[in-house]
Amino acid sequence: MIYSDLIIWIFAFIFGTVLGSFSGALIHRLHFDKPGLWTGRSECPECKTTLKWWNLFPLFSYAFQGGKCAYCHKRIPFIYFLYELIFGVTFLLFVQKFSSPEVLPPLLFAAWALLVLFFYDYLYFEVDLRITIPAIALAFIWVFFREQAPSFYFIGAAIGGGFYALQYFASGGKWVGSGDMYFGVLLGLLLGWPLLLLCLFMAYIIGVITAIYLIIFKDYGRKSALPMGAFLMPAGLVCLYNGDWWLNMYLTWSGLGQYYSF
Ligand SMILES: [Zn+2]
Question: Ligand 1 mean position to 16 CA, how many Å?
Answer without folding.
Answer: 24
